[in-house]
Amino acid sequence: MTAALATAGLVGALTTVPASAAPSAPEMFCDVPGQELAISPVAELQDGEQVTWLSTIKGTTPTPFTGEYIGKLDNGLGLDADGNPRDLLLVKLDGDVVNGSSESLATGVWAGASGSPVYDEDGALIGAVSYGFSFLPDNVAGVTPAVYMRKIGQLPDERTLTQAAKQRVTRLADETATSRSSAIRRLEAVRVTTGPSADELDEANRLIASRVDGFRGAAAGGRATASAAIGGEDFPIVAGGNIAVSYAYGAVGEASVGTVTAVCGDEVFAYGHPNNWNSDLVASIHGAAAARVVPDLTGSYKQISSIGRVKGKLVDDRLAGIRGLLGDGPDAIRVQSTSHIGSRNSSVASFVSEPELVAAVAYTQSAGEASRILDNMQVGSAKVRWVIQYERADGTMGRLENVNRVADPYDFPSLVGMYVADDIAILQSNPFEDVKITAVQITTRFEEGYRAARFSGVQILKNGAWTSIAPNGKLTATRGKTYTFRAVFTPIPGAERVTHYSRFTATVPRTARKGLRVSLAVPTFDDGFDDELEESRTFEEYVAALDADVRSDVFQRTHVSTSTRGVRTSRTATTEVPVVIANPGSKFTFGLYVTPAR
Predict the structure, then answer these.
(1) DSSP 3-state assignment of 179?
(2) In this structure, are residues 389 and 438 in contact, taking their beta carbons and an 8 Å threshold?
(3) Which parts of 56-122 are beta strand (E)?
(4) pLDDT tens for residues 145-161?
């Protein structure tokens, strides 16, 4: 869905916004008092007829521009659901001042201009700038007629199209086929992200989807550009002004920015083409401020300086454009990250309206915190604890709590949020019932350096000194006596050169027949976790399997003995160590043997 960013520098020649006058008994786009706006009778437009259009190239105030109607493409937008053809209008956009320069600037029609309203000589709305036709400089834009935009969200009665009509819909309306033909391309909205780049958010969705069956993820469409934060200023939503459609805002933001075509009461119409062409995605709408229009060989684009506070919500994302409602935004899922390093701590949050973006936001927000706190994009270590709150299909609330440790010498930030993102996606994709994530809290204690070690053996404290035990070693012991040991964790190459020890004791039962056998084992990440998920018969079992996920910083110690009466006793304890254990699956066994009881 590439932008067709057309051509020459565009200039403002108007000094006032077009009036809303129209021919007698016109069809009205808006009849709200004070906002009356007629729809231009397209059939009466003549080649060469002068038009005006509004767009915002700096700040939040629309600039008027001139142009000329030059014709239309019959069926340019394909057939509607009734099988009726939808034409695409052609307008040549003129001007010679953009970005305050008095010289001609070959920006063409820029990404982010889509939705710019075009008016006829009487001030009636012709439609919205929305499509382009060439990557080369070309100041002709495709305009989606206003009559189609006014019907956004008004779906017809269900009916069956003929096979020929279906083929025409596929050929003329399908954006992938259109893109391949290079005949018509929709002008892209400007995709604005805060925190991670758009590529990083997309990669997060791909990574999570590769690990979690059934997860699909979501992302804004449009040309990705480096832009400013999604903040809290109260920018207006006005015809010709900027509008942002946001699936998340805060520490991690994901939005596309285009132009408002018309406001009618609490309804807002924009873009003149789809955003993601999926009205089920949940998005808030915001005003936005522009910095400038940037000329670019791959297509000029509007640079966004800031996105304002929530002004409402998106309700329709259709072929003819988007429609939003001013007022309260949609419910947002708070993703909170609290970070600690030494005695310092800080906290950031993102607010996510689209549920399928929560996992990617948690992932990328954690990565951003890692690089911010450590001021390092490669090496680091951390202990991560997370709580996921969710609502079940019957309305009951639940929470999943987990913890793990991560460390890496080359790509540490990409690991920090991996486990919480997977847990979110697994909950959302569970096979039993619909689950809504309501909040996510992530607490991370960071440490500089790569802190990882291998489980390398066991030592016994004997006569005040530590002595290594051989694997499967047999130690002479006394019934009823307690012995002190420590597990040894040796740093691996490239890690912090510190050997860690974990002390424990073992007592030989007074009733032991032959003694006590001690086994230490580092669990592996495939120790039945996936099997338990697949074998779960209820949602409760599914969550229990998630809750029992294997950690990377623990080992299990099992003591086994048999009494003189033949009763076998086995006790297992899990012990945490302050490093990532680099050799999962490693084991060590030894025995404390006594004289056999008669």
Answers:
(1) helix
(2) yes
(3) 63-73, 88-94, 117-119
(4) 999 999 998 765 444 44
